[in-house]
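Run log, item B.
One chain of 234 residues. Sequence copied directly from the ordering sheet:
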Amino acid sequence: MISKEKSYHIIGRSVNIANDDSVRPIGADESAQWDLMYRQSRAYYHMEQLVLAFEALAQWRDEEDLYREQVPKPSSVPTTLKQAFETVESTMAPLLQDSFLIYSDEVDSSDDTFTSIRDLYLPEAIIAYNTVLHSAGYLITRDSLLKSMDLSVAVAKEENRLTGPLVRAGRMRELVKSFALSAKAMLILKGLGHKPWRTKRDREGKDPGIWEIGPQGKRGEEDEEDGQMVEVGA
């Protein structure tokens, strides 16, 4: 990795400056050099994270297709599919941070290069991620649907700075519809008598009860569109 090679020549140690909390600078001089290297490497590191996230999303899709096409269906979910889901979660987490591809004086940001990258790729990644959470809610664990609700809250928080790219890209309506499908799936599963949702006290999306507004949760599958809702019995 470039970060480790460069750090060795500057401070005499091989360190991933951008992502190694176990190693800290020694002394004031090294701390100053460490800070400079971190600011210089952030843009490269963020671009690497973006690529890894899209690779993980593509890998999930391949594994999901393989599982759905198997006849007869396996009695349990393949380990490869579970691993693909875990990779999606871990690689998407950095993209949802408020500092992702946002800089002040670390790099030359006088033009709109990084804003354009955020506007082009973040909406696509977020919508694809929510689609994965929706599918995983049926294929792996229903808790993934709650994570979809967590994602909706994270997007809505102004301090996360995620709504801007979605609005500028004209994808907000599409994402809201995707969240609605996940919320409806939660209510359908609840109505089918599945075990109660186990929610964490501090989770963003709370529990499916907050989405039960009027008759919307009772229509079930009557108004499903675009084939996005997978079979309930999965």
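Observations after the first pass:
- The domain at 47-218 is CATH 1.20.190.50 (Delta-Endotoxin; domain 1).
- Helices lie at 2-11, 27-69, 79-92, 113-139, 143-156, 163-168, 172-191.
Flagged for discussion on Thursday.
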